[in-house]
Amino acid sequence: MRILVIEDNRDILANVLDYLQLKAYSVDCAQDGLGGLHLATTNHYDLIVLDIMLPGMDGYQVCKRLREDARSEVPILMLTARDALEDRLEGLKSGADDYLVKPFALSELVARIEAILRRSRGSRKRQLKVADLVYDLDTLDITRAGQPLKINPLALKLLEILMRKSPSVVRREALEEALWGDDTPDSDSLRSHIHQLRQIIDKPFPAPLLHTLHGIGYRLAEKSND
Asked: Taking CA 37 as the corner, what is the angle to CA 36 and CA 42, rounded to the nearest 5 degrees?
């Protein structure tokens, strides 16, 4: 499980990071709202722990941007020193799944995280989505504009990597290592699989999603930044 912690208090951040890692979670960190929003929109996380009082952009704004602009359904646990009812309601209205008041016991934080993850697994489909391209991680079904697509297993793995990293660029070397490990075939193999994938997810549709950054790698996004 991969968790993003957005917290500007260095002591709290360090304690939370150490405890979550002891519990076998993979953790990324940010100390301001804009940095946290960037990480949240360019990476896949199973849950976000989000402080409200942040420099630059507060937690309410980050949460709203994730829900409204990024259309993200990642579970969010808000942290704050504010314990008034109005503050808790504002956090929930902005899209948070739960609310934990400081100071808190680290054991309670993990218990809340585990409870949210149980609920989210039961109530939300595990899907990756880029524009109108949807990959259902539970059924392995791929659709674009509602049309089912048939993709072979290796291309499916390639597509999942690109969708999880979208809209970021994934370097050729990273894709080759993820697909073949140390047993990488000749240099044309990745290009061939990219071509086959593009024929399936892009060719029948008006707007391309799979973009090549020559000499660097590939990205899956609505618009190319070439």
From this structure: 100
Token code pair at residue 1: 């499980």
- Over residues 177-197, the pLDDT tens digits come to 888 887 777 768 899 999 999
Q: For residue 93, count other CB atoms closer than 10 A to its CB.
A: 11
Distance CA(56)–CA(116), nearest Å, equals 27
Residue-wise pLDDT tens digits, 71-119: 888 999 999 887 667 776 777 788 889 989 999 999 999 999 999 988 8
Q: Where in the chain is the domain with CATH 3.40.50.2300?
A: 2-123
Q: Nearest to residue 119, comparing CAs of 60, 28, 46, 25?
A: 46
CATH label, 2-123, candidates 3.30.70.890, 3.30.390.10, 3.30.70.3270, 3.40.50.2300: 3.40.50.2300
Structural tokens at position 140: 């392995």
Whole-model pTM: value is 0.57
The residue whose two tokens read 């709203």 is 64
Residue pair 131/207 in contact by the 8 Å Cβ criterion: yes
